[in-house]
Automatic annotation (TrEMBL):
Residues 325-421 form the M23ase beta-sheet core domain. This is Murein DD-endopeptidase MepM and murein hydrolase activator NlpD, contain LysM domain. Residues 191-311 form the Csd3-like second N-terminal domain. Gene3D superfamilies: 3.10.450.350, Glucose Permease (Domain IIA) (2.70.70.10). One of its GO terms (biological process) is proteolysis. CDD domains: M23_peptidase. PANTHER family: CELL DIVISION PROTEIN YTFB, PEPTIDASE-RELATED.
Amino acid sequence: MTKKNRHKIHRPANLSLKRKPAPSRLTMPFFAFMGALLIGAAIFFNFLSPNETQSSIDWSAQGIATRHEYQDIKEDGAFAEQEHESEELPEACAPREPEITRMSDTIKRGDTPSTLLEGHLGLSEIYSLCNESKDFYPLDSLRAGQPWTMIYSNKALIGLEYEIDSNERLVVSLTDSGYEFRREAIPYEMETKSVSGVVESSLFGAVTSAGESEELAIRLGNVFAYDVDFTRDLRTGDSFRVIVEKKFREGKFVGYGQLMAASFTNQGQTYHAYQYTDKKGNTAYYDEKGRPLRKAFLKSPLPFTRISSGYSMSRMHPILKYRRPHQGIDYAAPTGTPISTVADGIIAQVGSNKSQGRFVRVIHSNGYETIYNHMSKFAKASKKGAKVKQGQTIGYVGSTGYATGPHLDFRMRQNGKLINPLKLKTMPADPIASKEMPAFKAAVAAYMEQLEEPVQSASLEQPSTPNP
């Protein structure tokens, strides 16, 4: 066959598609199972947590605006409560209270504001503090033995406290604007108690045997010092009963408050004392009839010592070794024992010489004067011309001058003439005013029954069980 005659042979196109292989019998059941599984999961999650599921759907489908609308709808429900709780400051993030620390100690000899506050305040600040405190209490007068407290906030000094005495304290606050001062009463818990005892050898021993401190013996002795000479008159078997306030601080006994009433039986005679404050604010002790216990003169300038030498017109002098008048009373006592003036008066002389040693002379009313010899030292109040009150300390027992040992040589003059102090009889002060007698009798009635109870010796009072 020649090229010309050659022609292409066209085969008809195969218009039919290639037949796909037949699906497997497991295909349709598989897809049906997966669809059912998805539907079941959706239903399960919708019932398990409908709020969260619905919320997530709504937010994704409707956008932010729809979400705000949904929050408004739910504001009275649980979602609103959760939102309100989220606004509160978590406890862990709350600001802490400042840590307050108190450091207490007692003032020691040589302590000054500068030494105590060094490292906390500058010298100029300490000077300013002391200068401003003078109107309340001078800080340069700190006394050894008194409590002192420094108060810190997170280690920064913010305050000071100083106990002026047993009743008051100075409180200082250090603020950004300066110093703030105030004096305030020291808080105590007070209990009124009845205490009794029987004397065997001394009043001090009787009081301490009753479980009390010597402070109470001194207080009791001062009350009856006008009627009982505790140096000469005390006898075995004498007894006392006292109604007194006892002071406690943080549960610890720290002293006594007011001595409200007392009785003392000396050699068979009983004396009573009732504290009463009149309408003018004057406080004193009176007997059951309203007569004051206070007399013009105390029985003795040293209530708890012995007489070593009495009043005599002819006594062998222990140093000069010849007889001469001894127109005074010698009270033997340890060096440093406080000496009290026996009556109100004015100090006429404070001096020293070869025979009397250090001495003080006091002028009283009605021509009386008293002389106190052989002192070891004078009290601060003992200045010529100074007024002194009955019972005030004017000096301290010593052995200066002609003395073989520590004692007080006490002398008294009336209109310039030496007299025997032990024979002096004085009149009491004015009694309770008649218009105040009803109030006084009511005060007495509150304590009289307790004072009249019989006092038994401590050796006879042996309770089987301790008192609560």
